[in-house]
Amino acid sequence: MGLNKKILLAFVMLIILPLLGVGWLTYSTSQTLIETKYGEQTEITLKAISKNIYYVLKEVNYFSDNYAILNSDIQETYRVLNTYEDSQIDLRYENGFEAKLRRSFLSYSPIQSVALYANSGATITASNIYNSLITYAQLRLNPVFKEVQQLKGIPLWIAPGEHTELFGKDAYFYQLRIVKDFYNTSDIGTLLLQIRLNELEKIFHLYNSDNVQTTRFMLVNKAGLVLFDNNEELQGTNILENIEEPFVLNTSKISQKIHFQNTKSIITSHEAELGELGAKDWIIVSITPLQYVTGQINLVIQSVGVILALFLISALIFNFAFVNSIIRFILRVAQAMKRVERGDLTTRVDRIGKDETAVLSKGFNSFVARIGELLEEVKLEQTRKNKAEMMLLQAQIKPHFLFNTLESINILAVRNEGAKVSQMVHRLGNILRISFHGKEEITLKQEFEHLCSYLEIQKYRFEDLFDYQIEADEEVMECGILKLTLQPLVENCIQHGFEGIEYRGLILIHVYIEGERLMIRVQDNGIGMSNVILAGFQYKMFEDMAETDSAEHVEQRGLGVRNVADRLRIHYGKEYGLFICSGENQGTTIQCVLPNTKLGDDYEA
Question: Does pTM surpass 0.85?
Fold first, then answer.
C-alpha cells in the first residue's frame, strides 16, 4: 500500500469513520427512541379510546336491556305478537304497537330503527328514517341467527360492512339479541336495533393531536375489514389492501413501520376489549405518517449532518494542503514508474528546482525517453515483417480460378449468350477489384459483394452442385474485416466438402454480434473431415503437411483456411481467429471470430 493511501486510510479510519459512526448511531438511536415512545403514547391513547367506546356501547346496551327485558309494555308486546301466526300482516297500528316502540326505543336518539320479531314470525317495526329492515324469515336463514341464539340474551353488535347480505353497505351499527321472558326466562322473540353512533367520530377527533388530523384512527375486525374510519375513506374496505408489506393485525405488538397508501407510516393496534358487551374481535388501529413523528428530529439531524460535512471537508483540505512535498514527489515518481510498466512511455515527471528531486526527475525522464526510442525501432521492424508476411499470403491467389472463369466466359461467348457473359465479367471484375483493393481491411458489405460474385461464378461452373444462404442484419454491414477472408472458407466447402457428394450441397453463412466480437459462421452439409485432418487444423500440423503436398494440391486450396487463420492472427492478435468443428459425413462448421469495429463510408471501394 502506498504512503499516500496509508495516510488517507489512517485519516479515514481514525477521524471520518468514527464521526460517521457516532452520527449514524445517534440518528438510529434517536429514531428508535422516538418511535418507541410514540408507540407507547399511542397505545395509551388507543386504550383511552377503547374505554370511551366501551362506555358508548354500554349505554346503548343499557337502554336495550331496560326496554327489551325490564319494560313491561315491550314484554307484553312480544306475548301478543306470538299469538299471531301470519307474519305478513301489518301490525304496526295494532294495539298501538308502533307508538309503544316510539315511546321506548326511539326515544333514545342513537337508535334509528327497531324491529321486534316474535317466535311465531310476527314482526313489528318502527323507524325515524325512511328505511326497511330485514324480515324474520331472512334473519332465520342467516348463520348470524344461530350465533345470536348461542349468546342466550347477550346482544351481538354488527358493525358497518359486516353481514352486508342482511344490512347492505350503510353506515349504521346493528344490535341483535334474543329477548327472554322476564318471569320464566324463556325465549319470546328477537330484537333488532339500527343505531347511528355519532359519538365514535367525536371520540376519534377528540384524540387527534391537531386540526389537520395527521393521525388516522380506524375500527377494524380481525379480518382487516374497516368498520369505522374517521376520514370516511376506507370504511367497508380491507385495511390490509392499503398496506404494502405482509402484515398481520397483532394486538400484542405495540407499533410497527409500514407503507400505508405509499406513505411510510407507524401503525399501532389495540384490541377494543368489548366482548362482554357483544362486540367481538374489534381492534382499534392508529396510523401516523413517519414524517410527522420524526420531522423535527430529522431537521436537527440534517443540520448536524451539514455541520459535520463542513468539518470533514475542512479536515480533508488541511490534510492534503500540508502533506510533505517530498512524500508527494516520491509518490508521483512511483505512479509514473507503474504507468511505464503498463507501457505508457509518454509519462514524464515534472519538477522545478535545483535540488536532488529535480535531478532524479530529469534522469527518470531521459531513461523513459530512451526506452521509447528503442521500442519504436523494434515496432517498426516488426511492422515491416508482418506486412511482408501479409503481402506473401495475399499473393497466393491461384491462377486456376481465373483461368477457369475466363474459359467459362469464352464458352458463353461462343454460344452467343451475351447477358451471361456480361454477368460473369461483372462478377469477375468485382472479385479482382476487391483483390487489388489498396486497403487491408474492408467493410463486411464489400466482402459479401466479393463473396457473392465468387459463389455465383462457381455455381455456373458447378451447376446443381450447391446453394448458399447469407444471414446478416443490416447493422453488421459496416463492420470491418480483412479482405479475402470468407472466399477461402467457402472455397474449402466447394472443393473439399462437396467432393463426390450425390446430393445438393448447402453453404450457410450466418453473421451476428456477441458482445465486443463479430462472429461469422460458415457451415456446409458436405462430407466433413476426419479426426486426423481436424486435429491438424487444431494443433497447426498443416505446416508439415503443406511441405509434403504437391504444388498442384497447394494451388487447389487458394489462400486456404490456414492462410486465413494466419492473416487474422497477424492483423488482430492471438485472441481472434478460426475455430473448426467437423465430423465425417456430418458437414463442417468454421467459426470466424473478429473484433466488432465499424469502418463507415470512408472504406467504400
Answer: no
